[in-house]
Design brief:
Two copies of one chain form a homodimer. Chain A is an alpha+beta fold. In chain A, 46% of the residues lie in helices and 23% in strands. The first copy, chain A, contains nine helices and eight strands. In chain A, helix 8 crosses helix 9. At the A-B interface, helix 3 and helix 5 of A face helix 3 and helix 5 of B. The structure holds a DNA duplex.
DNA sequence: CGTCTATTTGAATGTACTCAAAAGCGGTGG
DNA sequence: CCACCGCTTTTGAGTACATTCAAATAGACG
């Protein structure tokens, strides 16, 4: 029982072995290829996903056709279109693999059953939720406060292999700038560091 | 038992009367004057607050001295510096009353006790957390996608009495623009509605 | 009434975008 | 294995959006 998903659970709550078994059996392991969609906008997000390995992108498409990346989900992250997952209404996001990845999926139905049998899981997902909330709040503050250059530098600092693994187009769509501007910014990067 | 805070609880979970009693007795009612700080940056947020009436502002002060408003908290909202409240580390936000207000405070210590006695409360706060997360995500998307004018119009649309109750300076700090620009924007408001 | 803060106005500047075109790169099929 | 196609990245010119700074005006509050 030394799987990453179990370790992740152990960081926040303690389960007995029966509970572990129950939790573990509610998950389905999936290997997915690059470009696979786990969630599509308009469809209902039936599951939430724990990423065992690989890299995925959660994004929206605006009316004007431009894509906006909500987040890049890496190893040891839980990810879904939460709005759709919890409300079981059509998703607004796409969730797509940027690399071949391994994920554990947990369906809404299974999770609701688990909540009844293991109330401690409410705590687990509440804590995950809180952490996500706090980091989102930071992002809002950053968007309001920092220049694009600053945000770009902070991003590659927090995520050093981003440049290797993610296209500039996608990085730009996460930073909220155009790919063209990101390109010109990189040229002048060393010059101005406000 | 027809208090607003109880109604709010009832929207998401059902408690029996003993549990209600317990929950209710963990809360403290406070009347606060305009400009009162419930949380100050640097101090530890010992409580989370349910707003029975009035209006509060949650904000940060940047290194350069400018204020950034995270949110305006109205009647029937739960608000705190969640980072500080959960981690019990120094807060990054200020929480200040913009109007004379009535709040219910729930301390971290009391809440942890409640979680043990009433596991269903984990669910309640998880749901609140989710909703907050979803609306934050919308805000990030809006910041990336929409023009300032659009965001301003959407804001006063969602919060029609904002103009009455909140200074322009504070609205600007919520929208992430300068008060000067908000001022010039309002002049031309009717002209361009992209 | 006077003081302090918020709002308005305007000029100059900077940041980021749009549009267009060229160059680079990766994957696929022959 | 190479050539081609399609997508990504670069580059540049012109423009729009938003900021800074400064100064005048208006409003709130003791």
């Amino acid at each position: 029982m030394d799987e990453l998903v179990v370790k992740n659970l152990n960081r926040h709550i303690r389960l007995n072995s029966a509970e572990f078994e129950l939790f573990r059996n509610s998950l389905k392991f999936k290997k997915i290829r690059k470009k696979t969609f786990l969630i599509k906008s308009g469809e209902i997000a039936k599951s939430t996903y724990f990423i065992n390995s690989g890299l995925l992108r959660l994004y929206q498409i605006q009316e004007d056709g431009t894509e906006k990346t909500a987040l890049f989900a890496q190893e040891e992250w839980w990810v879904s279109d939460l709005y759709s997952f919890y409300s079981q209404k059509p998703a607004v996001h796409f969730l797509q693999a940027l690399e071949p990845s391994e994920v554990w999926s947990l369906s809404k139905v299974q999770l609701e059953k688990l909540y009844l049998k293991i109330p401690k899981l409410e705590r687990f997902f509440r804590i995950l939720q809180q952490n996500a909330f706090i980091s989102q709040n930071e992002r809002i503050m950053d968007m309001m406060t920092k220049s694009s250059t600053r945000r770009y530098l902070d991003f590659i600092n927090k995520f050093p292999d981003a440049e290797m693994r993610i296209s500039q187009k996608h990085i730009a769509s996460f930073l909220g700038i155009t790919p063209e501007f990101l390109s010109t910014m990189k040229k002048n990067k060393i010059l101005n560091l406000p």
